[in-house]
Amino acid sequence: MISKTEIADILARAPLFGTLDAAGRSAVAEEMRESSFEPGQSIFARGDTGGELHVVCKGRVKLSVLTSDGRELSFAHIEPPSIFGELALFDGRPRSADATAVNRVVSLTLSMAAFKRLLTIKPAVAEAALKFLSGRLRDADEQLEAIALHPIEARLARFFLAASRQKDPDGKSAKVTLALPISQTELALLVGASRPKVNAALALLEAEGALERRGQLMICEVEKLSALGGLD
Question: Does residue 64 have a pLDDT over 80?
Fold first, then answer.
């Protein structure tokens, strides 16, 4: 069982809640409920009714969708202290993707009803939510811009930068190690390119010192990725 103090500490590092003061995080912590999932267990499926967000405390969660030809496309792996499932909290619509526990996962959930209560007693939560959603929109705009305007190596650089920001939201680390348990084919689908072009672009990023591949681990040099992605 995770204590309220531990929950508040996790929230301090999590997107959306990290900008709140101690009192705000404590109020959110009071509304959180702990959940656990075994390896391979479905947390929710695309089309399910959604009514809560999750903050990952332990383990890794895979977000995926099925392609038109029935293949699974993994587009994100969520690790502590990231959040997922937040769209349902804001709009109440069905889930837009599948979420599956990769290993044993412990998460904290915040229901829509609890979120609405917090909005009435803690206006700072509403401000934090607006900032969080604005960041999500900016990320989406950058991804669309990258696909439309930038070469494949820049798109990949931006992809790894976005993943690095998710793992290190405060931007304190010059070097971030990411687990990337997806195939190059899946990666190619995510950045709008072919597998051979992705392979060549990965080699270029390595040659430039922006990436180091160690099996399924990617060691990202944030400053060099930013330069190659046209974001410096």
Answer: yes
